[in-house]
């Protein structure tokens, strides 16, 4: 290689590295932050639901994609977080700044108790035990009228105090719902950043090792059950934070939030987006929420149409939507090299 060629190559590397370091995450965050100003109230409502469901789906993927644990009862921690935050704010008048982290801690505590028993089993038995715990949580929420409101739930949960946002330029004319969406967007972004850091940490690398080969990890001296339990607790805590935001977004917490069908919904989000990619569940959440709303507006047979579309997407993109996009991008790069 000549000196001139080396210099040209060295000059090209920073440009390629800069291209690869395009802050797509920041760009998407800024675009979503403009929804209250550029979109309608319906658009803001839809964006808020997608944002919260994205955190819920990513928290599940910490188990499903990172640790290799299939949980059918992840909705239990979502519901526990929603109830803890709703009860504290409505019944006891606790401010949101305290009720929100308490929701995550309450869900993590319940995940610690249930996970202690769940991680002792493997594969299908683990999944069924998580479902059993979620049904116990639903039964408590449905029957404990004095605390949870029973089948009537906890309606009219107040929004957090957001008058401080009026001093932010451009926020004075926004509705309380739009301001809550912006707050939720920031909290979800911080939560996703923390989850991403956990996955990239040595702890996260051990989890992926356990996912790929738990026997080898145990042979190397890793306490597999302890790491799985830790992953279970962390995932449950973040699911509780998503539940707290969802209860405020819906202005109420009801027993349906803990029903098993909600777990099926979030599993579909994760698989649809791609469990092998960090942002896959978020994309899956956006796709499922948008498809559900769009199809419902056009036909009463929305469940049939949605099911057919999901079948086409899952068969067409075995690695999820993000996996399909990544595969297409790799083919484009190979074509450009050729």
Verbal overview:
The structure is a single chain. The protein has 338 residues and is an all-alpha fold. The protein has a single domain, classed as ABC transporter involved in vitamin B12 uptake, BtuC, CATH 1.10.3470. It is built from 16 helices and two strands. The protein has helices at 3-20, 24-33, 35-38, 41-67, 75-90, 96-118, 123-143, 145-148, 176-200, 202-212, 214-219, 224-250, 260-273, 280-298, 302-316, 320-337, and strands at 154-155, 252-253. The protein has a two-stranded antiparallel sheet with strand order 1-2.
Q: What does the secondary structure layout of this molecule look like, with pairings?
A:
Blueprint: H1 3-20, H2 24-33, H3 35-38, H4 41-67, H5 75-90, H6 96-118, H7 123-143, H8 145-148, E1 154-155, H9 176-200, H10 202-212, H11 214-219, H12 224-250, E2 252-253, H13 260-273, H14 280-298, H15 302-316, H16 320-337
Antiparallel strand pairs: 1-2
Number of strands: 2
Write down the domain tally. Answer: 1
Give me the CATH architecture, please. Answer: Orthogonal Bundle
Rounded Rg: 22 Å
Q: Provide the helix percentage.
A: over 70%
CATH class: Mainly Alpha
Q: What's the gist of this structure?
A:
This protein is mainly alpha-helical and 338 residues long. The protein is 76% helix and 1% strand. Helix 13 (260-273) crosses helix 14 (280-298).
Task: Offer a few descriptive terms.
ABC transporter involved in vitamin B12 uptake, BtuC, single chain, disordered N terminus, 338 residues
